[in-house]
Design goal:
The complex is a heterodimer.
Chain A (H helix, E strand, L loop, with lengths): L1 H5 L2 E15 L8 E15 L3 E5 L6 H8 L7 E6 L2 E2 L8 H6 E4 L3 H4 L6 H11 L7 H11 L5 H5 L8 H13 L5 E5 L7 H18 L2 E6 L2 H7 L2 E6 L2 E7 L2 H4 L4 H9 L37 H5 L5 E4 L2 E3 L8 H15 L6
Parallel strand pairs in A: 3-8, 3-9, 6-7, 7-8
Antiparallel strand pairs in A: 1-2, 1-4, 4-5, 9-10, 10-12, 11-12
Chain B lengths: L7 H9 L14 E12 L6 E12 L3 E5 L6 H8 L7 E12 L7 E4 L5 H7 L4 E4 L3 H4 L6 H12 L5 H14 L16 H12 L6 E5 L7 H18 L2 E6 L2 H7 L2 E6 L2 E7 H6 L4 H8 L49 E2 L6 E2 L35
Parallel strand pairs in B: 3-8, 3-9, 6-7, 7-8
Antiparallel strand pairs in B: 1-2, 1-4, 4-5, 9-10, 10-12, 11-12
Helix pairs in contact in B: 5-6, 6-7, 7-8
Classes of the chains: A alpha/beta, B alpha/beta.
Amino acid sequence: MTEAMRTPVQLSARSLTRHFTTRIPGRFLHAKRTVRAVEDVSLDLIEGRVTAVVGESGSGKSVLARMLARTISPTSGELILQGLPIAKHAKRTLDYASRVQLVLQDPYASNNPVHRIRHSLARPLLIHGAHKNDVENLSKAALARVSLEPPERFLDRYPHELSGGQLQRVSIARALCVKPNVLLADEPISMLDVSVRLGVLNLLRGLCDDEHLAVLYITHDIASARYLADETIVMYAGQVVERSRGTALVDEPAHPYTQLLIASVPNPTDPTSQAPVRSEHSSFEIAEQGCPFAPRCSFAMDVCRQSDPPDFKVGEGHSSRCWLYASEPEAVVEVALTERRREGEATKT
Amino acid sequence: MIAEPLDTETIAKVSESPSTETEGSIAPNDVVLEVRNLSVDYGVGDKMVRAVNDVTLKLRRSKVLGIAGESGSGKSTLVYAMTRLLRAPGVISGGAVTLNMTNDDEADSSLDLVTASEKELRKIRWSHVSIVLQSALNALNPVYRIGREFDEVLKIHRPDMSKTQRRNRAVELLTMVGLNEDRLTRFPHELSGGQRQRIMIAVALALNPELVILDEPTTALDVVTQREIINELLDLRSHLGFAMIFITHDLSLLVELADEIVVMYAGQIVERAGAIELFEAPRHPYTLGLLNSFPPMHGERRELEGIPGSPPDLSDLPAGCNFHTRCPYAMERCSREEPALVALGDSERSVACWLHAADSSERVPIELSRQVRTASASAAPGGDES
């Protein structure tokens, strides 16, 4: 705890929430629905630490990254950059962009295919006030930083001439050349080949350790989060359902969703660990009321369907948003089970 | 039309008999697909790129063959060539693919798919061999309701079926993959990715094929959905007894799923072994590197190295072994001569690496000469020679 207090927090999010309004498909006019993409998420990105956000598609992890990069404005909640709150409706300034940089999933989509790498690197440098004469050297330094050597060989290449892993390094170099304090990496390895993924992960780790960047690592691959992260956050349906420091989250998962996620990872060392799921309803279904995971949860109790659980502490620096960890879980379970028996199938429909 | 359940017990016994090599002696039909020295080129002349180079494979009935490899390793090209779905500029430049079919009405027959005519191919496609592609959204027609996908297949291949029979079969198939029959009237965009992939699997199974080829069927899916579909597939296979070729870049998934795995690199098979042997006792440095590229879910956190360098450019392959520029064990010989895929000792596994050559004076590194520990693997005798 004391250590966390001493390490400077670069970027904090306080109760970030983003709702989108959509029409209900198939219904005419007035029928509208609110999609709660991100609901009440708070996190601190700390210098020299990697914070991982794990979740399936649709869990809101990318919306969260974009809110942190301020390319999407939050419905409510607050961002605090280096101790200074960002005014809610303030424009995204150049200064903010130079401190917080975003790296996206697909390097072929995020690098302009008709421009050489030189151009991709020079643009942010010039925009952020580098002198024209320094651009060449700064670009080379940026490429060297992500171990693309010799840099001269890469500057005049086009994106299609590089492999996915190399181009993702270019994307990271481009983000780094404005000297940010915070790097947001949204699924940086999911499009890359297996053999080069570790290289990018080790690069992120190195940037964190050597240059004290605060890194947000967004992924659907819980094993890579375990490998890289100092703090791991699991998101489901826009909410943080579990978070822990270190590897506790994977080693002793508390939330049923995290347990399901871990059981689903192919694990050749333990072929008996097979997720017991098999039903159409286990696909993405979100409750309107109560815990969003309740419809898929095999431990779901009555209380889960009625009210949203708060965070419960399950260990040192480890919390889970699940009623199972309420202070008197036996009592809660007991009440829920009797009520469940009584209501039977009625609640399901 | 109804699934004839194959007796997997007897099949397993037959497949253990050592003399399946000699055709016609015991059970020629034990092998459902045999690929011999298949090569595929893209383009001609100077710009020619060999995407699949001299691949030889054998797939036994009701078994799962996993093909692992990175993008560009030729794994998809290989199955497109096998099924003759390859489009220009891809050309099959050599080899043979034999499909052994069992028919209900006629005598068992076999067909060389490389030389088969379009008419013959039409007959075997879907009823004997079907394929599930990675992107179900692209494979399903967006303006067809799901029911029509089933209806069309059955109408063409089973003209004697009535409309009601076709619908019943479609409902039966949907139930098999765990979907409700009301999905028949939906459009693909109304379904989730996992549901679409289930539909693809159901459509592929519509005519009880003997061989189902799955090209990265779960890559675009979330890990929980992937697990559901994998369990589903294994379930279906044990009921229906079809053989599977499963292509993926995720080696750890294959280890769980497959009976035998081939690892491809730059269009060639570099290692072939039983799933457990491959996982516990890899022999090729590339396989070892791939296995080490997956961060573990247990144990102490330590830095992993992965494989240095980047995946090969097929138009500019190095001399000698294709992998030697990235290989930590590369010897002088590796840059000169290309290793062939040879059997290791008297075991069923084979590897293309000079480290394991009989005349090699080098000591095989300890991590490439491990023994299989698991008791369940003892059925396959002789992990290796070391």
